[in-house]
Amino acid sequence: xxxxxxxxLVVEELVRAITRTIVYSVAVLYxxxxxxSTLRQEAKEAIQYSAQTATSAAIGTILSDPAFxxxxxxKIKQNTKxxxxxTVDVANRKLVVSAQGKSKK
Length: 105
Hints:
Layout: H1 6-64, H2 66-104
């Protein structure tokens, strides 16, 4: 067996260190990507849950408020009814005008 020189030993150890660094880096990147994917999904679910809870709480608060039920809700219903009636009247007038225009031709 011949003994290796100092330069050869340094080169061999440097090659080993580089290969280990590459392997460990790939492993760390894979683990980090997996963790971030999991955290991203968890964050999406947390945001959805928060939005649903906040919406439910707001609707519950509004609908249980007597001022809303006594004052505001009847006005909303009346405005909605008037908007529907207006839309029907305008559509009816346009249809009548359109039908009259076709009958003249």
